[in-house]
Amino acid sequence: MRNAIRIGLLLAPGVGLVLAFMGAVLYRAVAQAFGLYDFSGTSDGLSLAHWQDVLTTKRFWRAFQWSAYIAASSAVIAVALAYPIALWLRKPFRGSLILSAMLKAPLLVPGLVAAFLLVNVISYHGFVNEFLVWAGVWAEPRRMQNDSNGFAIIGLQVWKQMPFAFLLLSGAVQAIPDPVLNAAQDLGAGKFARFRKIILPLTTKAMQAALVLIFIGAAGDFSFQTVAGPPSVNSMASYMASLQGSEGDWNGAAVVAVMLMALSLFGAIGLTALVQLITRTLGRLA
Amino acid sequence: MARLVAEDIAVRFGTFEALRGVDLTAESGSFVTLLGPSGCGKTTLLNVIAGFLQPSRGRLAVDGKDITALPPEARDSAMCFQSYALFPHLSVADNIAFGPRQKRVARDETVRRVDGLVRQLGLVDHAGKLPNALSGGQQQRVALARALAVAPGLVLFDEPLSNLDAKLRDQVRNEIRALQRDVGFTAIYVTHDQAEALALSDMVCLMNKGVIEQKGAPRDIYFRPRTRFVADFIGAANLHRGKLCGGAMSTPLGVLHCCHEDGEDVEICWRPEAARLGGDLSGTVKAVAFQGAHVDVFVSAGPETVRLQVPGELNVSIGDTLQFSVPPEGVIALEASANA
Question: Which ranges carry the ABC transporter domain (chain B) (predicted)?
Answer without folding.
Answer: 4-234
